[in-house]
Amino acid sequence: MNSLPLLDTFQIHITLPDIFTRRFAALIPQQRERVNQLLEERVILNYALDMERTQLWITMQAKNQEAVMNILATFPIIKDVKVEIFELAFFDASPMGLPELNMN
Questions:
Q1: How far apart, in whole angstroms, are the C-alpha atoms of residue 23 and residue 42?
Q2: 81/85 Cα distance (integer angstroms)
Q3: Is the residue at 49 inside a domain?
Q4: Would residue 55 count as lying in a domain?
Q5: What are the pLDDT digits (tens) for 61-74?
Q6: What would the mean pLDDT of 51-80 be, rounded to a whole number?
Q7: What does the alpha-carbon distance between residue 49 and residue 14 come to, in Å, rounded to a whole number?
Q8: What domain range is 26 assigned to?
Q9: Rounded Cα distance, 103 and 27, in Å
């Protein structure tokens, strides 16, 4: 019987640069593409940016902190940001799915 690998959940806090250079701004579409790929793969569970565009929060599933670092290393913006990683004791979320159908 094959069992799924046991994954831990991590909260990642990313502080963006104070000033977005042209070079950094040019990386944003590639960053979104990578994040969208990881969201589709359910590696990233959520991804949030504050209104001031200075802070990112990511909830991610991975085998361990080293695996998180390896995933973050694939982010186009990684060399320009400050990263903090926190392993979570638990992560609860509202169930996501299709809305209920009302057959009226």
A1: 29
A2: 13
A3: yes
A4: yes
A5: 999 999 999 999 99
A6: 97
A7: 9
A8: 8-87
A9: 46
When divided into structural domains, the chain yields a total of 1
What is the CB neighbour count within 10 angstroms for residue 66?
9
- Beta-strand pair 8-15/44-49: unpaired
Q: Any idea what DSSP says for residue 16?
A: P
For the domain that residue 51 is a member of, what is the CATH number?
3.30.70.1060
Decide if 45 is inside a domain. yes
Query: Does residue 79 form part of some domain?
Result: yes
For residue 70, count other CB atoms closer than 10 A to its CB: 12
51 band by pLDDT with thresholds 50, 70 and 90: very high
The answer for residues whose C-beta is within 8 angstroms of residue 1's C-beta and 6 or more apart is none
CA dihedral over 76, 25, 56, 98, signed as positive or negative: negative
Task: Give the pLDDT confidence score for residue 98 in this predicted structure.
Answer: 61
Q: From CA 46, how far away is CA 60, in angstroms rounded? A: 7
How far apart CA 83 and CA 72 sit, in angstroms, is: 9
pLDDT value for 87: 94
| pLDDT at site 104 | 60
